[in-house]
Amino acid sequence: MSDKKPVIEFKEVSFWYGSKNDKPALKNINLKIHEGDYVALLGLNGAGKTTLQLCINGVIPNSIMGEFEGEVIVYGNDTYDTPVREMAKNVGVVFDNPEFQLSQMSVAEEIALGMENLGFSYLEMTETIPEVLEIVGLEGLEERSPFGLSGGQQQRLSIAAALAMRPKILVMDEPTSNVDPIGKEEIFAVAEQLNREKNMTVIMAEHEVEVMAAYADILVVMHEGEILLNGTPEEVFSNIDLIKKLGLRMPQVTEYAHQLNQLNPGSIKKPYPVTLESAVERFKDTL
Amino acid sequence: MEPIIKVENLWHIYPTGNVTALRDISLDINRGELVGVIGQNGSGKTTLVKQFVGLLKPTRGKVFIDGEDTAPLKVQELAAKVGYVYQNPNHQLFARTVQAELEFGPTNLGVPEDEVAERVEQAIEFFGLQDLRDLHPYRIGFPLRKLVGMASIYTMKPDIFILDEPTTGQDNVTTRKVYRLIGKLRDEGATVLCVAHDMILLAEVVERMLVMRDSELIMDGTPRQVFSNDEIMASTHLTPPQITSFSLRIRKDKQNLGDVVLSVNEMVKLATN
After folding, report:
1. Residue A107 is part of a domain; what is its CATH number?
2. pLDDT tier for residue A3 given thresholds of 50, 70 and 90
């Protein structure tokens, strides 16, 4: 992986909403993300996850007021002097609340809106709309009102609208926090499918550590604007004391292995399991 | 003792489109119970709890709150008994300061001024809102704003709290705080209903679960019973907490509910016994 060139690179990035007298929202961020990586951002509310994500599509520093230092390079473009609409060709963004992003009378218009802004032709739109709706499992719903859809469907429509612009990177900010369990399943499944089958780079902020430990290749743990941990789920969740000190949770099976090992030091070999499957495999004969 | 909520053969049919949202529901909830209500959007769970608040009235059947038939009661008359905390605090909060927000409910119920002041102090203490009292609710971040939403119901001192997705969108620190607050509400004698998808809340905090599907109450049982019922879990698209799934996968005696754990601590105890 180290010989590959990163598609996203943060170099010494700091950002302040307001002036430099305020607390920085991001502090000396260095981060490399490679093509096809599924990266989960973990951290408490206010840790800087959303701010970091807004740097990837260039909304910071181009559209949000504040003080910006450092460099963010995405597919060779420095976000500082690349227009946001240009960035949108590489980076699609999905936020936590679909109601905030949906505005049109029909599902088809919702998808067409972003494409129009980027100058896609009518022909391209008529080809793309059914295609992206199929990817997210909303085929045939072109004429429906976005506001009559379920929360999970609305969020998948937001994903479809982002995909229509043919991005190589999908940034998702707690996309499941306003949907019910079936909607959650659907959204995680779509993200995984895009990552595995289309090699799309996914950057997901999410509180559900069990789900992220199972899906993500890389976990990035943020705290007060800084990146404190960056590695595979096994690596990150072996920093148990730090994770707990930050107020974060580990997957329950990891916590279980940790507690068993504390009762009988050395009894459970590291790395501890981080997914249900690996825990069942590890412990099935011990009980 | 009489149940605090009694539901008898309750039907709710929305007049538009003749949609049956609740089909022949009967149940009792006793004072001091901590109950989770689960099901997909559209399963009827919101319609059910709106019946308890008086926002909806039965099409057929009866709902009794503390022995009183809700049919002739207005929402305001039930507000002293039943408090509803919205999932999105923005749908609930409107005053200029947190303090004014907390004063509004009891003042509106006709509680004397000095008692309102006392209740506001209690609520600020209970929810840890000391630094926020003079702030505009919209100036406060979402996690704390949600606590303000709960606190503004707390000052009305209802017997029953209905919490709609109290931990959605919250991080781990605030989520844990909400769990502790729910326990404290119960310790003060309240009955608490949580409409929730948060599986750890349901496993570690509530004692009884009502499972709704297609307008019907399909299961009423303990979290252990519900989580170990594969058919119920699959048909509602719910996944038990990871440690519960783990215990279900590795246990040898499939009939023994004692092997179904609800928390990491229980699993450690089971493994080291």
Report:
1. 3.40.50.300
2. low
Using CA coordinates, name the residue in chain B closest to A257: B268
Comparing C-alpha atoms, which of A276, A273, A259 is closest to residue B248?
A276
Element (H, E) at B213: strand B208-213
Per the model's pLDDT, the better-predicted residue between A273 and B93 turns out to be A273
Which pLDDT value is given to residue A149? 85
* Residue A61 CB neighbours (<10 A): 19
Check CB contact under 8 Å for A174 and B169.
yes
Domain of A44 in residue numbering reads as 35-62+84-232
Name the domain count of chain A: 1
Torsion on CA atoms B209, B214, B216, B222, rounded to nearest 10: -20
Q: In angstroms, what separates the C-alpha of B167 from chain A's closest C-alpha?
A: 10
Q: Which of A181, A207, A276 has its CB closest to that of B238?
A: A181
pTM score:
0.91
In a domain, A216, yes or no: yes
pLDDT at A18 over 70: yes
- Please report whether residue A53 resides in a domain: yes
User: How many DSSP H helices and E strands does chain A contain?
Assistant: 13, 10
ipTM of the complex: 0.89
Which residue of B237, B242, B270 is in closest CB contact with A210?
Answer: B242
Q: Does residue A129 belong to any structural domain of this protein?
A: yes
pLDDT averaged over 10-residue windows placed end to end, chain B, 273 residues: 95 88 97 94 90 95 96 91 90 89 95 97 94 90 88 96 91 93 94 95 96 96 94 89 93 72 94 85
Identify the residue among B37, B45, B46, B172 best suited for mutation to test binding to A, counting A beta carbons within 10 A and taking the highest.
B172
Positive or negative, the Cα torsion across B151, B153, B157, B158?
Answer: negative
- Is A46 part of any domain? yes
- Dmax (CA) of chain A: 67
Q: Which residues of B touch A150 (CB under 8 A)?
A: 41-42
Which of A177, A255, A263 minimises the CB distance to B264? A255
Residue B101 has a pLDDT of: 95
